[in-house]
Amino acid sequence: MCKTFFISDLHLSDSRPDLTALFVDFIQKHAKTADKLYILGDLFDFWIGDDEKSPVIEVVKAQLRDLADKGVECYFVAGNRDFLVGKRFAQACHMTLLPDYTVIDLCGVPTLLCHGDTLCIDDVKYQQYREKVQQKWRQWLFLKLPLSLRLKIAQKIRQRSQADKQDKPTDIMDVNADFVNKIMQKFNVKNVIHGHTHRQNIHKMAEGTRIVLGDWGKTSSVLYVDKTGEYVFLNETLQPK
Q1: Half-sphere exposure of 209 (CA within 13 A, CB side)
Q2: What DSSP element (H or E) covers 22?
Q3: Burial class (CB in 10 A: 0-12, 13-18, 19+), 100
Q4: Which end of the chain is more exposed for a tag (fewer CB within 10 A), N or C?
């Protein structure tokens, strides 16, 4: 049996209880019926270390742990907002951390998974920033700082990022098509699934198919793949109880 769900870009935080409720609703209604769940980054709006505690973090831990305990395999690819998610949090959720690029057998089809930010190479300023924050020694130093200081730094980075986005042309914040083709050839796949750009769509290309997960807001954005291999998006609102 093959029943797999993919989600990304939920940007969960304590300031958005509506998104947390939407996530819980998805877990309870859909994810528990799956064989596997892949979270392709930016599950949280930002992440400053596995020692961080908050109500939304505890909800996510409980939901994913319960999901895994019911036999659903859970996997996580880091995003640009939560790249510091580590083994401690993963173990608490009973989920498996995956590298930036991962090839899976999706119902018999080799498929490349990634968050998607690495595909946006035209955004040179962001790629330079990403190269710096991905350096292990920088991450080690950052995680040694007091939690309160890390929180202040993260808030400043978010504010700067939001300001930068307003000045950037929208096209450079999308993937570079030629680079996507090169990556797919490198990993010898015909299909790729990613998030990050918030532009939910299924792109048919000469080389294969590129599936883009959307972000969560008033509705969820869930990609569902069953044994037929068909890609279906579930975009649901939270129904009042």
Answers
A1: 12
A2: helix 17-29
A3: middle
A4: C
Q: Cβ contacts of residue 184 below 8 Å, gap of 6+? A: 112, 190, 192, 207, 208
Q: Write down the pLDDT at residue 207.
A: 76
Q: Is the pTM of this model over 0.85?
A: yes
**Cβ contacts of 49 within 8 Å, gap of 6 or more:** 84, 86, 142, 143, 147, 150
Does the CA dihedral 54-59-64-65 come out positive or negative? positive
Tokens of 238: 């939270």
For residues 56 and 54, give the distance between their C-alpha atoms in angstroms, rounded to a whole number: 6
% of residues, the chain, pLDDT over 90 = 82
More confident residue, 111 or 169: 111
Tokens for 51, please give them.
């020692």
Output the CA angle 148-76-5, nearest 5 degrees. 130
Mean pLDDT for 24-50 is 95
**Calpha distance 9→26 (Å, rounded):** 14
Average pLDDT, the chain: 92
The pLDDT, as a whole number, for residue 99 is: 96
